Structure formats: C-alpha cells, structure tokens
Amino acid sequence: MNIQQSLNTMSLIAAMLTVGFTLLGGTYSNASAQEAMVLYDDFDQTLLDPNKWVGAQTSPSVILEANRKISKDALKIINRSYGRTDTDAGHTLNGNNLNFPNPDAITAIQATVTAQKVDVQGCGTEGDTRTFARIGGSWFSTDPDPSFGDVLAFVQIAAGVALPTPPGIFAAAAVLLHTPEPGAGLTILNTTPIGLVSPGQPAQLLIEWDPDNDQFIFQLNDEPAVSIPYELPDQDLPASSFKQVAVTHFVDNCTTEPRPSAFMKATFDDVFVNESAVQTE
Fold it and tell me: pTM value?
C-alpha cells in the first residue's frame, strides 16, 4: 500500500469512526511525556501479580469465552462475546479487563499490544460490530455530581465489519468519551486514527493526560505524537475511576440469525506508567 492509499484509508476510517459525533480534532505534535515513564510489568513471571492488577469483566452474561493469563512472557487476553437478541437497536458492550489498583495516580500508560486473532459478525449487512485491544480508562470528571461527568480516553487497535481498512489490516485510534448529563450514555467527543497495524504486529501504544495544557497525547510506535485538546473543566476525580488494559467489544444487537459476535485474542507486554504512580503504591 503506497503513501496516498494509506492517507485515503485513514481519511475513510476517520469519517467512519466519527459519523454522528462531534470531532474536536487531533493535531500532530512533538509533545513528550510530562514525567518519566517506568516499567510497571513485563509479565516475566508465571502468574499475574495480585498487587499490580485487578481482574474485571463488563457484561459477563454475554461473554462466553474469557481468559487472562501470562503466556510466553506476555499478558494474553481472550474475549468472545455476543449481542442481545431482543432488539435490533444499539450495541452490547463486553469487556475482558485487567485494571490497575491505583487508577487516580496514573496519568500515562504505555504498552506493547499485539492483536493476534479477530473475528467479527454484524447484524445482517448493516451491522457495525467492532472489537478493540486498548489501554486507558477514566481520567477526570466535569462535575462533582457522581451520576455524570466522567471523561474516558483510550488508545486502541480496532477491527470491525464496517471499518474501511484494507483486508487483514487493523486501525489504531485515539478516542475520548464523556457522560454529559445525568441519565445520558457515553458520548464520543473525538475519535482520531493514528495509524494502521497488521495482525500479529506488535504495536507500542501510548496515552497520556496533560491537564496543564487541557489535552491528551497519543502515540503509535515512533510515529509523531497526536494531541487532542478538550474544553472541559477537569478539576474533579472521576466518579467511576479506572485505568486498564482490555479487550473490549461493541457487538450489534440483532433479532435475526446469525447472532452477532466478536472475538479477539491479544497480548500486552512491557507496560509502563508515569513514575509517580509507582512511587505512590
């Protein structure tokens, strides 16, 4: 694939990921880490360290195959999930997650992520099932009311039935989400593609919150960092505080066969965090 084809593909992905949402825009920058990054876990032991990780699942009733373990000196996460069958509206969120026990101390996460196997099934020909291997979490709240206001941000490797990537190629993307008012679901503030990744290709992903400059910083491998600004108050901690590495699915809900599903096997290795997060453990 030549440079122009890559740019065209990235433009299509950007359009696809932001349909129906407000795009604030991401800009390439020379931004660097606000503080030193230190190794948190390289998974060179036999078992996951319970002092470093907390296991979690989202919508466990529709996650039929889930696994988290160390394999060949890396964290392997498997998730096979299904959508609901009582409606054709919306998606079911399914996550197989490994969470940090001290999320509020973490302002930056870096990991080497490899999406190894993927299988997605949408609802008929109009489906939009997607799967993600991602790092990130909730970073701040825009309101002290615990019922709304949390801002989430992730950097992720994405595959989906409607993403216009070349055959066998995944999209790396940054995403910002927000619960703007009580009773409202998550609204996508921004989704910005940051590169393309092949199956089985290790990808170094970085996400950093830079509150002094009202922005998040994202990076894929040695590509230029991408900064995404926000215009939101950020003085409050999130009501639902978490940071994680995860394999997450958004599976179509569908009343017809075949039932939509998503599968991904991914590995995570060489997890780094900001130095102060380790010092406060």
Answer: 0.88
